Amino acid sequence: MEIRIVEANNLRNAATELKQSGFRLLLVSGVDWVQKSNTYEALYHFSKVCGPDLVLLKVSVPADDPKVPSIADIFGLADWHERETYDLLGITFEGHPNLARIFLPDDFKGHPLKKDFIAYKRMLPG
Amino acid sequence: MEQEAKRTKINFGPQHPSTHGVLNLLVEVEGDTVYSAEPHIGFLHRGFEKLAEERRYIQFLPALEKGDYVAAFAWDDLYMALLEKALGIEIPRRAAAIRTMMNEVQRIVSHLLWLAAFGQDLGQPTVFLWSFREREPFINLFEEVTGGRLHYYYSRPGGLKRDVSRDYLDRVIAAVAKFEERLSELEAMTTKNIIFQKRTKGVGILSKEDAMHCGVTGPVLRASGVGEDIRKSDPFLMYPHLDLKVITRNEGDAFARTEVRIEEMKESARLVKFLARTIPEGPVMAGPYSETASEKWPDSMSMASMLKVFGLSIPQGEWFLRHESPRGEIAMHLISEGGPKPYRLRLKSPSFCNLYAFSRLAKNTKIADMVAILGSLDLVFGEVDR
Amino acid sequence: MFDIVLAKTSDLFDEVTKKPFRWARGNSLWPVVFGISCCSLEMMDLGASRTDVDRMGTFYRATPRQCDVLIVPGGPVTLKMATVVQRLYAEMPRPRYVIGLGACTISGGLFRGSYNLIDRLDSIVPVDVYVPGCPPRPEAMMDGILHLKKKIETQHI
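YS: structure for the whole thing
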């Protein structure tokens, strides 16, 4: 699997270039590296259509301003995956048509997948 | 303005007999015509990825199988294959063959459940009852060797938890042979039935460009003309040695998806019979966890190995692996910083990708057609919401 | 006011003609079509032909207005789903019962304590019978329905 580190402002060009050379998007994810290097990382997995080649793009953004340009108009699949990454990790995708929470209720406070979110506490009913 | 006033927005709520699981559709209707349907999900979000970071590797396996509860073995197999890739263990040929065979049996079972739910949606309770009857022999076979009807926990890093006997494999062949005879009855009720054809032909047409843009996978993508099957494009287990036929159709409607799945069931039946006849002899576990129990139980793991598996730890690094489940392409990305728990485990579920295409497909249709489209996408909400 | 009077009259009537009513109620439990997660597959198996729950008098109805039992097939109840379950329960006419299937309704099951879950079903609706298992076998679910039937006939609920 080929791993490429890409700058945030170069992401859209890289994604368009991959689309034109016959790749499709598989997955958009986020990783919380705040405790290690004070950054968040957005991962984009691409695969060749009907082929085994895999490409992974990694975009690092600073923890105090996690903004990444959205590729939802190039690959429709990124629409919901970016909403999910925003919902669970708090990374904002600029230019997304409808960046709202997708899994959690709208009034949920916090982003659960961050390392400092303590998930296993007792939930009160109601 | 008057046109707008006649349209109402209603909730196809999370409790509805025609949604297979917890989906809330915000539907804009006028009479019987649906103008737009927007899916709202998250009613079953259990926090799998956070759970993975809190549990050890082998403790996460039961939770993972509850994601896609219809085809649990596909995820079981993928997760163990990922751990084996990370640890550098190569599984023995017998284990690979048995896992492939179980994958194909799981495909038959999953497609039968899809057919049952789809038939029920279209108003054919007979198809529901017949499909559940066809599932029973396979579920009993699974239960005999793994102990579970729906969730198996059968794979271990290095192979399989328990071996199967020759007698068991003969019974698998007999069950599949009987299933193949009965499949013609199911076809007579569905693909060869004029009412079913009228309800599904031309309904929910997903063009090739839309399918590629929305990122759908699995039978939905193959029914729109793209021959993408991970068992052929990026083969795993024993698939490089099997000649698999990738089944595609070009129309992209609900009928094409039905045909693709029924043909896949026939193909899986053929592969199961071939594999069950030609499984090589040998051990079923390899690597550091492969010590077998005493002479009384020569086919199972010993207690010492089980304890070692519990304390499994993976060195630093990242790994990615993808397989093909009955619903489409499943994938996992593992980032480990050393230690017994993962740092980040990301799951890709095909139903999440397929559901995104639904809002495109359900524009300007009838309510009954919208239900047929939803059924033909084969969604399982445990894996949509994770 | 009118509904309180009606409820009190019906309670009195019920006292007078106890047994046949309770027998009738226990033998014709009509559940709501409601499935959340993995246990709902075993519930579909319960309604299929091998373990046929139809012989117990159940008749699955789509709307809670026509039902008397709410079978909640596991999958833990999430925050978004809790309002839905409460609403379904509120829409059912009395007398109404609730069966909780699976370990997830008893204590949260495998996912206990997660950030999006309500661990125990009886913190949102009053539950009459719990069926343990993950998922419970269809025969175990049938046993749960028979327990509820016995509970209706012997206790006045």
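YS: worth flagging: The CA atoms of residues 95 and 118 of chain A lie 31 Å apart.
IM: good catch. Also Chain A has one domain: 2-123.
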